[in-house]
Amino acid sequence: MVGDNGELSPRTYIPDLSPSAEVHKDHFIVCGLGSLGQQIILNLTKFSFDSFEVQIAGIDRAPVTEWEVENLPDMLSQAPIVGDCRRDHVLQEAGIEQCRAILIVTSDESTNVQTAIAVRRLNPQVHIIVRSSRHGLNQLLNRQLGRFVALDATELPAMTFALAGLEDNTLSVFNIDTFQFRVVERQITARDPQYCNMPVHRLHRQQVRLLNLKPFSNPHQPIGWATTASSMFHRWQPHVRVQAGDQVAYVEVKTLTHSQIEHMPTRSGPWSKLRQGIGDVIDGEWRRRLWGFWHSANQQSLRRVVAIALTTALVLWTTGTLLLYFNIPTISFTKAIVLGAILILGGYGDVFGGFEDSGAQGWVLLTCLLIATVSLLMVIGVLGLLADQLLSSRFEFLQRRPKVPKKNHVIVVGLGRVGKRVVRILQDLRQPLVAITHHLDSPALRNQIPLLEGPMLQQLQEAHLSTARSVIAVTDDPVLNLEVALLAAEALENEKRPFTPVIRTLSQLFSDNIKAFLPQARSFSVYALSAEAFAGAAFGENILGLFRLNQQTILITEYAIEYGDTLNGKPLAEIAYGYGVVPILLRQRQPSKQYQDYPMPSDDLRAHLGDKLYVLSSINGLRRIERGEMTPPRQWLLEVDSPLNPTMLSEAGSLLAKLSNVQLDKCRQLMKTLPNTLQLSLYDYQAHRLMQELKRCVPIRLSPLK
Predict the structure, then answer these.
(1) Using one digit for the tens of pLDDT, what is the confidence trace for 143-196?
(2) What span, in angstroms and rounded, lies between the C-alpha atoms of 117 and 213?
(3) Which is nearest to 521 in space by CA: 186, 164, 170, 172?
(4) Dihedral sign from CA coordinates of 613, 614, 616, 621
(5) Would you say residue 474 has pLDDT above 50?
(6) Angle separating helix axes 270-283 and 285-294, nearest 10 degrees
(7) Cis (ω within 30 of 0) for the bond into 238?
């Protein structure tokens, strides 16, 4: 019940949905039944419920010998098809003609692209989702094929790895146009006036939206669930207060300036470069740079040539020394060694110069001339190759390279696609880091980040492991990642501070096993994280990113409102509470074809045809939106008495229409016949806001109906 003080009763309920007699079937095809494909099938089946049946066909080039989920084959509508997914008859056997979407996620990107082209020829209307990291080609295919989405399974979860290594309050940071959103989870203290002892509805501010609340202990007042479809968002009733020790998660937004969008790095001046150079000489940093330059992958050919040249020079020196010693009796062995060295340095004239007879035979003179000529050509060749390498590397060993941090830094092991993306995210967050790689395919990185090259396990100590903040192991070898994490945990087991290594795996089963015996580590399967994004994209949504919150994967999703869309014409309150999602940005299309942006939009705004709506949602939220399965609101009885100031009736009628989804004429008619009552369909947060706003104009009572 709601009293005059405006507080809602904790006795709430979540209404059941009545199943429909009509069954709607959607057919999907998954090409590639590896770890990613299997996880996608698992997530697609979450969309199958009651009147919505999801049928899935799977294709793989070879029979699947290992299933990550035991009953996964039973989730398919037919036995897995063995064959080349590029072939027409294989696609037709899988039902491409009646297919809604096909997910092409084999490990060969060339096969994926060829399959996408073949699919578009067979079915011009099917929605195509492709696993591909070729961003330029993906844009071209999107323009040519239409209804085409390309996702990179390895880069999507990079934010999760980066922020897990930071071990701070940030769960995600992402940009949408000129807005930067930051998801934060932290524990509230008694000295935090912005949150401590605040009711939940006060945490939904102009730039902030509450996502989750986990009480430290049982609150003093009774608590019930609010009417919402989500198991995480909007669960708590508006009057519930946050106490010290509670953990809250929220998303905040700020508008980026032009300079922040460009993100132009500032160039250091000559004095800072001079100080850097002096510091390098003092601490011996120049030795590491020169050693790293010599042992880099680009210098392998140079090392081979120099080794051959030194061996040849030693042979020529020995030959010349022995030749002179045994054929010119007037010189000692020591002098023969010296003359042999002069000879291979091109000093033939210094050894046999002038017109004086040296006493050497003709064949000795010719042999020594040949030795001098070969050695001279060899020196010229080596110097030429060295000059070419120096010019091509732009004197890399002389360039200023970032130093390895001494403490409070993150160690990133592996610089593949995931590793590079993790490094970029950490740089954007201004987190000190050092990267370790065995083979570097982007030499420009040497001058952009602190970098150690060589055997990864040996380089860990060089990266100041004992004072590091965390280790993020994201190589392509999950066993090596585990070895890195174990080595780091063992090296720091005596340290009296929390240390959480982050491990990349390719199998969710492997991740679960790691968590069992190494509980302090955070292990993520890239395919298990990415699969939810692929499954959401199968229903035509644009997945911008993902992050983990409360043991769930939250998808950052863009909805382009189209004709017949389940979101078209609905107020954001119904979308948020009815579907269990969090709208974070509404871009309303104007007659000039420009967009009016509303970050953290108000509940009373509506999504219309042509608008773009960005939401945070779990995979279940996407499923509810896809099926139009909205949790119905609670029924309320509004009692309105006559006000002392009749001039407020017009404003009260407008407010009631704005906040209750009741027609304006009906609201004004109500205000003309006071006292009166009106039955309303409102979610708890809507009812609380209506109570707070409307009681400023007229005396009201709002009570839930059983």
Answers:
(1) 888 888 888 887 788 888 888 887 678 888 888 888 999 999 988 888 888 888
(2) 47
(3) 164
(4) positive
(5) yes
(6) 90
(7) no
CATH topology classification for 24-151: Rossmann fold (3.40.50)
Strand segments (E) across 75-140? 81-82, 101-104, 127-131
- Structure tokens that stand for 495 in this block: 């340290």
Query: Top-level CATH class of 634-704?
Result: alpha beta
How many Cβ atoms from other residues are within 10 Å of residue 569's Cβ?
12
Confidence (pTM): 0.70
Residue type, 92: Q
Would you say 606 and 168 are in contact if contact means Cβ atoms under 8 Å apart? no
What confidence category does residue 526 fall into, taking pLDDT thresholds of 50, 70 and 90? Answer: confident
CATH number at 403-528: 3.40.50.720
d(CA 343, CA 335): 12
Q: Among all chains, which residue has been given the structure tokens 């008694």?
A: 190
Residue 462 is predicted with a pLDDT of 84
- CA distances for 423 relative to 439, 472, 523, angstroms: 16, 10, 18
Domain ranges of the chain: 24-151, 312-384, 403-528, 634-704
What is the chain's percent helix, strand, coil content, to nearest 5?
A: 40, 20, 40
DSSP string, 499-567: ---EEEES-HHHHHHHHHH-TTSEEEEHHHHHHHHHHHHTTT-EEEEEEEETTEEEEEEEEE--TT-TT
Q: 3-class SS at 226?
A: coil
Residue 218's pLDDT is what? 62
pLDDT (0 to 100) of residue 264: 40
The residue that leads in pLDDT, 316 or 667, is 667
Instruction: Judge whether residue 287 has pLDDT over 90.
Output: no
Question: What is the average pLDDT value for the chain, to the nearest integer?
Answer: 81
403-528 and 634-704 agree in CATH topology: no
Q: What is the DSSP secondary structure assignment for residue 404, as one 8-state letter?
A: P
* 595 sits in which H/E element: strand 595-599
HEC-encoded secondary structure of 453-482: ECCHHHHHHHCCHHHCCEEEECCCCHHHHH
What amino acid is encoded at 700 in this protein? Answer: I
Q: From edge to edge, which strands make up the β-sheet containing 179-187?
A: 170-176, 179-187, 247-255, 208-214
SS3 174: strand
Rounded CA-CA distance 347/640 in Å is 112
pLDDT tens readout for residues 40-84: 998 888 777 655 678 999 999 999 888 888 888 989 989 999 999
The pLDDT of 239-249, averaged and rounded, is: 87
Rounded distance, CA 464 to CA 467, Å? 6
